């Protein structure tokens, strides 16, 4: 009998609301102490410790010790990808209509622009990816990848990326990542990571310290408008 992947064990760990909250709090790629994760999940330190032990044993988290402090992070981008993909799964409501509770400021900020572990997601990430496709800088393929065109290689190089130095993973150089708030794809993979890093280096976007939300600077909006035609008001209106 062929062994089966341990889907049920990982699903069991993620399914618990407290553990899911902790995992999503780490989905920006940063490491955080148990106390911060306990606060995010609204549980006691003892309860948080029990959940974190299970997540460590299940291979979803890694822990780093510095002195007396222990910092937890996701075991890798594959865990963040699984979380994002699971979050994008939702039943289609009958009649196509659904009542929604008013969103909090934090929820609006995350939908507008956020880190998906190490690349840009949310309405902004989707808008940028669409602009790249509209300008034929990247082309979507049937295997959930993006092919970078010669014009795209030239453009990314002009933005400060070293395209010749980027190494594809087993999932390729540029991957389509389904955005869980927008239900459309944004740019992921090594190219998505390098592009996000460069946007930060250019001072176009800022990653917030204690949130997955990403802020766009005035310089960034001007650059995105000039380079890709991405307009702040249009992105705000779409989310």
From TrEMBL:
Pfam families (UniProt xref): HTH_20
Residue ranges constituting the HTH arsR-type domain according to the UniProt record: 1-94
GO biological process: response to cadmium ion; response to lead ion
Family annotation (SMART domains): HTH_ARSR
Molecular functions (GO terms): cadmium ion sensor activity; DNA binding; DNA-binding transcription factor activity; lead ion binding
Matching SUPFAM superfamilies: Winged helix' DNA-binding domain
Alphabetical list of InterPro entries matching this protein: ArsR-like_HTH, HTH_ArsR_DNA-bd_dom, HTH_Metal-responsive_Reg, WH-like_DNA-bd_sf, WH_DNA-bd_sf
Spans traversing the lipid bilayer: none
PANTHER family in alphabetical order: TRANSCRIPTIONAL REGULATOR-RELATED, TRANSCRIPTIONAL REGULATORY PROTEIN
Protein name (Swiss-Prot/TrEMBL): Transcriptional regulator, ArsR family
Organism in which the protein naturally occurs: Caballeronia sordidicola (Burkholderia sordidicola)
């Amino acid at each position: 009998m062929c062994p089966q992947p341990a889907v049920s064990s990982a699903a069991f760990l993620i399914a618990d609301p407290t553990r899911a909250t902790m995992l999503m709090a780490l989905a920006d790629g940063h490491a955080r102490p148990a106390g911060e994760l306990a606060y995010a999940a609204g549980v006691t330190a003892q309860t948080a410790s029990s959940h974190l032990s299970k997540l460590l044993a299940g291979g979803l988290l890694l822990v780093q010790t510095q002195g007396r402090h222990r910092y937890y992070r996701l075991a890798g981008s594959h865990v963040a990808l699984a979380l994002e993909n699971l979050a994008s799964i939702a039943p289609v409501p009958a009649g196509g209509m659904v009542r929604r509770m008013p969103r909090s400021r934090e929820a609006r900020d995350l939908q507008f622009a956020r880190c998906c572990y190490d690349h840009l997601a949310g309405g902004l990430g989707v808008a940028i990816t669409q602009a790249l496709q509209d300008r034929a800088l990247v082309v979507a393929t049937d295997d959930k990848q993006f092919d970078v065109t010669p014009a795209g290689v030239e453009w990314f190089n002009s933005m400060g990326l070293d395209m010749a130095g980027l190494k594809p993973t087993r999932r390729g150089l540029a991957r389509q990542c389904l955005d869980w708030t927008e239900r459309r794809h944004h740019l992921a993979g090594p190219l998505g990571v390098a592009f996000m890093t460069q946007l930060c280096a250019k001072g176009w976007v800022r990653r917030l310290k204690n949130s997955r939300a990403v802020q766009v600077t005035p310089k960034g909006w001007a650059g995105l408008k000039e380079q890709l035609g991405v307009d702040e008001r249009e992105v705000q209106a779409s989310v």
